[in-house]
Amino acid sequence: MTSIFETISRGSLVLDFAGVLGLGLLALAAIRLARREHSWGGNMMAFGAMALLIARVFVVVTPYVMTNERLANMGPFGFSVQIALPTILLSLGLAGVVWGLWGHSRWLHDER
Fold this sequence. Notes:
The chain is an all-alpha fold. The chain has helices at residues 3-10, 13-37, 40-65, 68-111. α2 (13-37) runs antiparallel to α3 and α3 packs antiparallel against α4 (68-111).
């Protein structure tokens, strides 16, 4: 395997950091758009971007924080929540960003 393909396929902290940084910039841009244009689409994009950012940070940090002992102490419900939470946040975040983009473009079209 080449080193670039190996880095991409196995993941690394540098790529994780770039993903978190990109989502943070998306969130800041959406918040700026919401404050400047006063559109509900900007607010929805900001919500979606923040949900994506929280989920990504959760996915990046979990392997370093969760040990087998902590997982055993959480019980079956806690284990299920720990598995389902990133998926729910990623789904809601993506839906929020897409809905916000659609809403903002609709708002711009109605303004004209």
